[in-house]
Amino acid sequence: MRRVVVLLVLAALSPRAHADDGDYLLPHPDTKWWLSAQSNFIWQFQPGFQSPYAGTNSFLPDDHRALSYVATIYGGYQITRTTAVVVDGESAGGTGLSSALGIAGFTNLDVVRNPTLGPTPYLGTAFVEQIIPLSDHWIPIERDPLHVLHALPDHRIELRAGKMSTVYWFDQNEGASDSHRQFMNWTIANNGAYDYAADTRGYTLGFMAEYDAPAWAVRIGEFLMPTVANGIDYDFHVNNARGEQIEGEWHDCILGHPGKLRLLAYANHANMGTYADAIAIFNAEREQNINNGPPDITTTRVPGTLKYGFGLNFEQEVLAGLHVFGRFGWNDGKTESFAYTEVDNTVLLGGDLVGDRWGRPGDKLGIAGVTNGISQDHANYLADGGLGFLLGDGKLRYGREDILEAYYTLRAYKGIFPAVDVQAIAHPGYNTDRGPVVVGSIRLHVEL
C-alpha cells in the first residue's frame, strides 16, 4: 500500500500530468499507464417496521444500522495502440442491514452477499483487451479504470478475456449502473431479473466480443457460473455450467438529444434446482406423514439445468443535464435464483438531473422506482417455508416488491463525493404481511 501511495503522489507531480475534470482527487499522467484508487463507504440505518413474524432469511424488523466499505486499486497498461491489460485489487468489508437478507431489491449494492468472507483483499479484475480496427477514423476517448486506451476506431471489434464482471459490458445504463455515485439498490443499479454469471462478490471468468459501428453495436459473452447458488467458487465443467449472453445496442439522437436502447438475452446452465420439483417432493412427503421440514430446492439440483431470460434497457437525454432511463427484465422463474438476486420479473423507470441549474454542475439528483415480482412456483415455494439464498420469511402472502429510491450526490471537492439517499420498500421479500421498510443512507465516495 505504501508503494501505491508513492506512485500516486509521483503521478500527481509528473510534468506530463493534465488537469482533471473533477472526477479524481489527483491528476493522472497522460501516459500508457493507468493507476488510480477509490473507496466507497455506505452507512445505512433502518427504523423498525411492522412484522407479525420473521424467518431464517427475513429482513430484521428492529431498528438497526450497518456500515460497508469497498476499497479498490486499479492498474492498467496500453501495450500497443490496440492492446491493453487491466487489473484491480479490492477489499470489501463491513456488512449490510440484516446481513443482506430479506429483500430481493436489497438496499446496498456494495455488500458482499456472503458475509462470512470478510475484508480479506482479493483480485477483482484481470483481463486483456484487444481492439481490431475496421476503419481509419479514430476517436479520442475519456479514459477510466476499465478503459485505458487513448482512442478507438469508430468501426471496430473489441475482445476481452480474463476475470471481470459480466455487467461491466452488459446491461449498462448511464443513469443506473453505478452504486458509488448514483443509486444503491440492487434492482435499480442492475436488472434484477438478469441472473448474470457471477460469484458472490460479483466477478467471473470468461470472455466477451463486441462489434461496434457508429450507430449500433452487438456483444456476446461466455462466463463461468458458481458451483452453488451465491457461491464463491467457479464451476469449470463448462459442458454443464456456463452463462451465455447476447446484447444489441442502438444509439442515436432523438430530437437532437442522445439516447440508447439495448436488448438483452441470456441463458445459464448450472447445477440448479427447480421450484416445482421441490414443492412436489414436499407435498409427497407431507401426504406420507414424513416430516422433513419445508421444501428444499437444493435437493433437486441437476447439472446442466437451463435458466433463461430477457431484458430491455433504455436511456434518453430529454434536456441538457436531464435524463430518463428504464429497464424491463424477465426470466423463466422455474429454476432457482442462483447468481444475482431473487427476482423473476422487473420494471424500472427513473431520471436524474445534473446540478447546473442551481449552480452545482458537479452535483446530481436522481429518483427511480422499480417493481419486482416472482413466478407462481417461486412464490409457492417461499409460502411453504422454503429458503432461497436471500429470501425466506417462513411463510408468504405474496405481493410485488415495490421500491422507490432518491439520492443527491455532491461534488464537495474534485474526487470527493458525499451523498444522501433514501429508499422506501413496500412488501419486502414479496410479503404483504411485512413492512413497509424505509432505509436512509449516507455515502462517501473518494476517487484518487
Structural class: mainly beta
Instruction: Tell me the CATH superfamily.
Output: Carbohydrate-selective porin OprB
What is the distance, rounded to the nearest whole angstrom, between the alpha carbons of the first and last residues?
Answer: 14 Å
Unreliable segments (pLDDT under 50, ≥5 consecutive)? 1-20
Cα radius of gyration in angstroms: 22 Å
CATH architecture: Beta Barrel
The number of E-state strands comes to 18
Arrangement of strands in the largest sheet: 1-2-3-4-7-8-9-10-11-12-13-14-15-16-17-18
Separate helix tally? 4
Quick check: average pLDDT?
92
Characterize the biggest β-sheet: 16 strands, antiparallel, barrel
Find the CATH topology.
Answer: Porin
Brief description of this entry?
By secondary structure, the protein is mainly beta. The chain has a single domain (32-447), classed as Porin (Beta Barrel).
Please characterize this protein's 3D structure:
It contains four helices and 18 strands. The protein is mainly beta. The protein has one domain (32-447): Carbohydrate-selective porin OprB (Porin, Beta Barrel), CATH 2.40.160.180. The strands form two sheets. The protein has a 16-stranded antiparallel barrel with strand order 1-2-3-4-7-8-9-10-11-12-13-14-15-16-17-18. Strand 12 (302-319) and strand 13 form a beta hairpin. Helix 3 packs across helix 4 (376-383). Residues 1-20 have low confidence and may be disordered.
